[in-house]
Amino acid sequence: MTLSSRSIVVGVDVGGVKKGFHAVALREGRFLQKFATCYPPAVLTWCRTLQASVIGIDAPCKWSLTARARPCERELSGLGLSSFSTPSVMTGRLHPFYGWMANGAELFRMLAPHYRLFDGRSTALSPVCFETFPHAVACALAGKKLSARDKRVDRRRLLGAAGIATDSLTNIDEVDAALCALTAHHFLAATFKAYGDDAEGYIVVPSVLRYSAGLHGSIR
């Protein structure tokens, strides 16, 4: 797939209500802008102002229907990548531990009228948004299991190898947002893999994930 000459994509790292959102925009796979806010509507406005075609978000796009790990989380766990299981909507909205997930759910809700949620099928229709997972993205790009302990070094190195300048990324949240944006860039190029199902959501990562299962990963 040939990328548009003006393709702009966004990646968003999601924190709790106080930490908020860190976002990075890429144009043609190169750093364009960054943005931080505590307010989901401000993220939507920024993305629409940039006319971003794809948004990758580090937060669950759907709550668990069974109160157990979603299919996308189980599939990644089978590859050695473990993360916090997404709870049911009731638990997620009531328990403070899941505040960042609730914040992410609110962002997806705000985006919905303007960015369709990826359904595992056509990638040709845009604007579109999807869930991704920076640790899985980093491991996919590296082609091997990486330790979360070294994420500050490894993730910057991988961004640099992809041609993305990291000088303006001052913290790990911005680095993770850039990894989400890089995944959105891969989405445009159709070089990605989606794990999960439509009922409980897909997690999208670059399609170069190839290391063996049995190695346990880390939280987001």
Q: What is the CATH domain class?
A: Alpha Beta
In terms of structural class, how would the helical and strand content be classed?
Answer: alpha/beta
Strand order of the main beta sheet, please? 3-2-1-4-6-5
CATH fold node name: Nucleotidyltransferase, domain 5
Residue stretches low in confidence (pLDDT < 50, at least 5 long) are 1-5, 211-219
CATH architecture: 2-Layer Sandwich
Give a quick account of the main beta sheet: strands, pairing sense, barrel closure: 6 strands, mixed
Our count of domains comes out at: 1
Question: Ends: how far apart?
Answer: 30 Å
What is the count of helical runs? 7
Order of helices and strands: EEEHEHHHEEHHHEE
Q: Write down how many β-strands occur, each being a DSSP E stretch of 2 or more residues.
A: 8
Helix amount: 25-40%
Characterize the overall form. Answer: globular
Rg, alpha carbons: 16 Å
Output mean pLDDT.
91
How much strand? 15-25%
How would you sum up this structure in a few lines?
The chain is an alpha/beta fold.
Structural commentary:
This protein is of the alpha/beta class and 220 residues long. It has a single domain (8-206), classed as Nucleotidyltransferase, domain 5, CATH 3.30.420. The protein has helices spanning 40-50, 71-78, 89-94, 99-111, 134-142, 151-161, 172-188; strands at residues 8-14, 21-27, 30-37, 54-58, 116-117, 128-131, 192-197, 201-206. A hairpin with a 6-residue loop joins β1 and β2 (21-27). The radius of gyration is 16 Å and the shape is globular.
